[in-house]
Automatic annotation (TrEMBL):
<dbReference type="InterPro" id="IPR000868">
    <property type="entry name" value="Isochorismatase-like_dom"/>
</dbReference>
<dbReference type="GO" id="GO:0016787">
    <property type="term" value="F:hydrolase activity"/>
</dbReference>
<keyword id="KW-0378">Hydrolase</keyword>
<feature type="domain" description="Isochorismatase-like">
    <location>
        <begin position="19"/>
        <end position="213"/>
    </location>
</feature>
<dbReference type="Pfam" id="PF00857">
    <property type="entry name" value="Isochorismatase"/>
</dbReference>
<dbReference type="InterPro" id="IPR036380">
    <property type="entry name" value="Isochorismatase-like_sf"/>
</dbReference>
<dbReference type="InterPro" id="IPR050272">
    <property type="entry name" value="Isochorismatase-like_hydrls"/>
</dbReference>
<protein>
    <submittedName>
        <fullName>Cysteine hydrolase</fullName>
    </submittedName>
</protein>
Length: 221
């Protein structure tokens, strides 16, 4: 079966049987106060509008049996997987591994590192823990997609210009067709949100396609 969704720069065709929804880093550390996002000087309110449409998207994809994968950015408690260059980013007062209101910042197992309650993964939905911005670097994602025969990725999550872009670029170089859902990705910076989406679909779709979650769900049904 093939489905087609209106998208930029032109309609995106996909087979739901070989398509995965990838939900990038919808973690408390990015979406709630006191976490990594805020420690970098960002206003987390900018991202919170993505939660409701992503919740609806997850419900629809679960109902229709689409393969769903979640990712989380974070590090081992001993920080052995965190390059010193990454550790030095942000305010000196609050960095990766430091104690925050929701546990140690961006550390696996801490409350802030986990996915927000509204979008909690369900049993059977793989959760990929990644040390980098891209979901392919130093993770099992590539092997998992190959094992499942996935060729197209529908990508949502935060932030548009950082982990979503990095993952979409990594995916393109590995031969995946990528559709980014504009209302389910968010940036701390409105101008980066707009331009980040334009960059994906520019030059005839240099990294992929952009559509809305409503149009995607309509195509899936
Ligand atoms: N800072 C920022 O915009 N993003 C990140 O650090 N990680 C993700 O995008 N997940």
């Amino acid at each position: 079966m093939s489905a087609t969704v209106p998208a930029l720069p032109y309609p995106f065709s996909f087979d739901p049987a070989t398509t995965a929804l990838v939900v990038i880093d919808m973690q408390r550390d990015f979406l709630e106060p006191g976490g990594f996002g805020e420690s970098l000087g960002n206003d987390v309110e900018q991202l919170r509008r993505t939660i409701a449409p992503t919740e609806a998207l997850l419900a629809g994809c679960r109902e229709l049996g689409l393969f769903i994968i979640h990712t989380r950015e974070g590090h081992l408690p001993d920080l052995s997987d965190c390059p010193p260059a990454k550790l030095r980013r942000g305010k000196p007062s609050m960095r990766i591994g430091d104690p925050g209101p929701r546990g140690r910042i961006l550390i696996r197992g801490e409350e802030g590192h986990d996915i927000v309650d509204e979008l909690a993964p369900q049993p059977g939905e793989p959760v990929i823990d990644k040390p980098g911005k891209g979901a392919f670097y130093a993770t099992e994602l590539g092997d998992l997609l190959a094992e499942k025969g996935i060729t197209s990725l529908v990508v949502v999550g935060v932030t548009t210009e950082v982990c979503v872009h990095t993952t979409v670029r990594e995916a393109n170089d590995r031969g995946y067709e990528c559709l980014v859902l504009s209302d389910c990705v968010g940036s701390y910076f409105p101008e980066f949100q707009r331009i980040g989406l334009e960059m994906v679909a520019a030059q005839g779709g240099i990294f992929g396609w952009v559509a809305t979650s409503t149009d995607f769900m309509a195509a899936l049904r």
